[in-house]
Amino acid sequence: MAEPVTEQPDPPSYPPKTPPPPKKPVSPPRPDTADGRVAGPGPVVRTARRGVGMRNRRGVNWSLESVPWAASIAKRKVAAQLGQWGYRPDRTLIDTVVGLLVTAAVADSGRRISVHVSDQDRQACILALSHQAGLAPGHAPDGDDVLHQITAVPGVTGCGTDTGPDGRRIWAVVSL
After folding, report:
1. How many other CB atoms are found less than 10 A from the CB of residue 120?
2. Tens of pLDDT along 40-99?
3. Nearest to 113 by CA among 101, 128, 99
4. Mean pLDDT value across residues 8-31
Protein backbone atom coordinates (compact mmCIF):
# COMPACT_ATOMS: atom_id res chain seq x y z
CA MET A 1 0.00 0.00 0.00
CA ALA A 2 1.05 3.45 -0.64
CA GLU A 3 2.23 5.57 2.14
CA PRO A 4 0.55 8.90 2.68
CA VAL A 5 2.56 11.81 1.32
CA THR A 6 3.21 14.47 3.84
CA GLU A 7 2.97 17.92 2.39
CA GLN A 8 5.70 20.27 3.24
CA PRO A 9 5.58 23.94 2.39
CA ASP A 10 7.47 24.86 -0.73
CA PRO A 11 10.30 27.28 -0.15
CA PRO A 12 9.59 30.63 -1.76
CA SER A 13 11.15 31.13 -5.15
CA TYR A 14 11.80 34.84 -4.36
CA PRO A 15 12.86 36.60 -1.21
CA PRO A 16 10.13 37.96 1.01
CA LYS A 17 9.19 41.61 0.47
CA THR A 18 10.72 43.87 3.06
CA PRO A 19 8.78 46.90 4.24
CA PRO A 20 10.04 50.31 3.00
CA PRO A 21 12.06 52.39 5.43
CA PRO A 22 10.12 55.01 7.37
CA LYS A 23 9.94 58.45 5.77
CA LYS A 24 11.60 61.37 7.46
CA PRO A 25 8.95 63.59 9.00
CA VAL A 26 8.66 67.17 7.72
CA SER A 27 10.47 69.51 10.04
CA PRO A 28 8.44 72.44 11.38
CA PRO A 29 9.41 75.97 10.28
CA ARG A 30 12.02 77.78 12.30
CA PRO A 31 10.64 80.30 14.76
CA ASP A 32 11.16 84.01 14.15
CA THR A 33 13.11 86.03 16.63
CA ALA A 34 12.19 89.51 17.83
CA ASP A 35 14.63 91.30 15.51
CA GLY A 36 13.21 89.78 12.30
CA ARG A 37 15.96 87.21 11.88
CA VAL A 38 15.21 83.55 11.43
CA ALA A 39 16.59 81.34 14.18
CA GLY A 40 19.14 78.83 13.01
CA PRO A 41 22.64 78.76 11.59
CA GLY A 42 23.86 82.08 10.23
CA PRO A 43 22.30 85.54 10.10
CA VAL A 44 19.46 85.19 7.59
CA VAL A 45 17.20 88.20 7.19
CA ARG A 46 13.88 87.89 5.44
CA THR A 47 13.21 90.42 2.71
CA ALA A 48 9.85 91.40 1.31
CA ARG A 49 11.03 91.75 -2.28
CA ARG A 50 13.31 89.95 -4.61
CA GLY A 51 16.47 91.45 -5.93
CA VAL A 52 16.84 92.81 -9.41
CA GLY A 53 15.90 90.20 -12.00
CA MET A 54 15.23 90.10 -15.73
CA ARG A 55 13.71 87.55 -18.04
CA ASN A 56 13.53 87.19 -21.80
CA ARG A 57 15.83 90.11 -22.54
CA ARG A 58 19.49 90.82 -22.54
CA GLY A 59 21.04 92.79 -19.76
CA VAL A 60 24.29 93.64 -18.01
CA ASN A 61 25.28 95.07 -14.67
CA TRP A 62 28.32 96.59 -13.02
CA SER A 63 29.21 96.98 -9.37
CA LEU A 64 30.95 100.28 -8.68
CA GLU A 65 32.45 101.94 -5.67
CA SER A 66 30.15 104.61 -4.24
CA VAL A 67 32.27 107.67 -5.04
CA PRO A 68 31.38 110.97 -6.75
CA TRP A 69 33.16 110.02 -10.00
CA ALA A 70 31.20 106.75 -10.34
CA ALA A 71 28.72 108.61 -12.55
CA SER A 72 31.32 109.24 -15.26
CA ILE A 73 32.41 105.57 -15.17
CA ALA A 74 28.79 104.41 -15.43
CA LYS A 75 28.07 106.82 -18.33
CA ARG A 76 30.92 105.34 -20.38
CA LYS A 77 29.95 101.75 -19.59
CA VAL A 78 26.25 102.22 -20.41
CA ALA A 79 26.96 104.05 -23.68
CA ALA A 80 29.50 101.40 -24.72
CA GLN A 81 27.08 98.56 -23.94
CA LEU A 82 24.22 100.13 -25.87
CA GLY A 83 26.63 100.58 -28.78
CA GLN A 84 27.55 96.87 -28.62
CA TRP A 85 23.86 96.03 -28.82
CA GLY A 86 23.60 98.05 -32.03
CA TYR A 87 21.90 101.18 -30.71
CA ARG A 88 23.02 104.72 -31.46
CA PRO A 89 21.39 106.58 -28.58
CA ASP A 90 21.66 110.30 -28.01
CA ARG A 91 24.80 110.55 -25.88
CA THR A 92 23.50 113.64 -24.06
CA LEU A 93 20.33 111.73 -23.06
CA ILE A 94 22.30 108.75 -21.74
CA ASP A 95 24.83 110.94 -19.91
CA THR A 96 22.12 113.01 -18.24
CA VAL A 97 19.94 110.08 -17.16
CA VAL A 98 22.81 107.87 -15.97
CA GLY A 99 24.37 110.83 -14.18
CA LEU A 100 21.15 111.58 -12.28
CA LEU A 101 20.55 107.93 -11.36
CA VAL A 102 24.08 107.23 -10.17
CA THR A 103 24.40 110.54 -8.31
CA ALA A 104 21.19 109.72 -6.40
CA ALA A 105 22.50 106.25 -5.55
CA VAL A 106 25.85 107.64 -4.38
CA ALA A 107 24.03 110.20 -2.21
CA ASP A 108 22.60 107.32 -0.14
CA SER A 109 26.12 106.87 1.33
CA GLY A 110 26.55 103.16 0.77
CA ARG A 111 29.90 101.48 0.18
CA ARG A 112 29.01 100.41 -3.34
CA ILE A 113 26.35 100.86 -6.00
CA SER A 114 25.33 98.73 -8.95
CA VAL A 115 24.15 99.86 -12.36
CA HIS A 116 21.92 97.56 -14.44
CA VAL A 117 20.98 97.99 -18.12
CA SER A 118 18.52 95.98 -20.19
CA ASP A 119 16.83 96.55 -23.53
CA GLN A 120 13.55 95.62 -25.15
CA ASP A 121 11.55 97.03 -28.07
CA ARG A 122 14.06 99.83 -28.79
CA GLN A 123 13.93 101.01 -25.19
CA ALA A 124 16.53 100.67 -22.46
CA CYS A 125 15.90 100.36 -18.74
CA ILE A 126 18.73 101.82 -16.69
CA LEU A 127 18.67 101.07 -12.98
CA ALA A 128 20.94 102.21 -10.14
CA LEU A 129 20.87 100.37 -6.83
CA SER A 130 22.42 101.81 -3.70
CA HIS A 131 23.35 99.01 -1.37
CA GLN A 132 22.67 101.05 1.77
CA ALA A 133 20.33 99.35 4.22
CA GLY A 134 17.99 101.26 6.52
CA LEU A 135 16.90 104.06 4.19
CA ALA A 136 13.53 105.68 4.79
CA PRO A 137 11.11 105.33 1.87
CA GLY A 138 9.91 108.45 0.10
CA HIS A 139 11.22 111.51 -1.68
CA ALA A 140 12.53 114.92 -0.74
CA PRO A 141 9.76 116.96 0.91
CA ASP A 142 10.37 120.06 -1.22
CA GLY A 143 9.41 118.19 -4.42
CA ASP A 144 12.79 118.80 -6.08
CA ASP A 145 13.75 115.13 -6.12
CA VAL A 146 15.57 113.15 -8.74
CA LEU A 147 12.38 111.77 -10.34
CA HIS A 148 11.25 115.26 -11.33
CA GLN A 149 14.66 115.91 -12.83
CA ILE A 150 14.61 112.63 -14.76
CA THR A 151 11.12 113.11 -16.19
CA ALA A 152 12.15 116.57 -17.41
CA VAL A 153 14.74 115.00 -19.72
CA PRO A 154 13.37 114.55 -23.29
CA GLY A 155 13.49 110.89 -24.34
CA VAL A 156 12.62 109.44 -20.93
CA THR A 157 9.41 107.39 -21.12
CA GLY A 158 9.20 106.36 -17.47
CA CYS A 159 11.00 106.34 -14.16
CA GLY A 160 10.49 105.19 -10.61
CA THR A 161 12.05 104.31 -7.30
CA ASP A 162 11.49 102.03 -4.34
CA THR A 163 13.28 101.40 -1.10
CA GLY A 164 13.88 98.07 0.55
CA PRO A 165 16.21 96.34 2.98
CA ASP A 166 18.98 96.18 0.38
CA GLY A 167 18.87 99.90 -0.46
CA ARG A 168 17.10 102.18 -2.90
CA ARG A 169 16.42 101.20 -6.50
CA ILE A 170 15.96 104.05 -8.92
CA TRP A 171 15.32 103.43 -12.60
CA ALA A 172 14.48 105.15 -15.86
CA VAL A 173 13.28 103.87 -19.25
CA VAL A 174 14.64 105.74 -22.27
CA SER A 175 13.72 105.48 -25.95
CA LEU A 176 16.57 104.48 -28.24
Report:
1. 13
2. 444 444 444 555 566 678 899 999 999 999 999 999 999 999 999 999 989 999 999 999
3. 128
4. 72
Distance CA 75, CA 95 (A): 5
Burial of 23 (0-12, 13-18, 19+ CB in 10 A): exposed
Residue count of the chain, please give it.
176
Q: For residue 125, give the nearest of 158, 92, 81 by alpha carbon.
A: 158
Residue 168 pLDDT greater than 70, yes or no:
yes
Minimal CA–CA distance to 172: which of 108, 134, 115, 130? 115
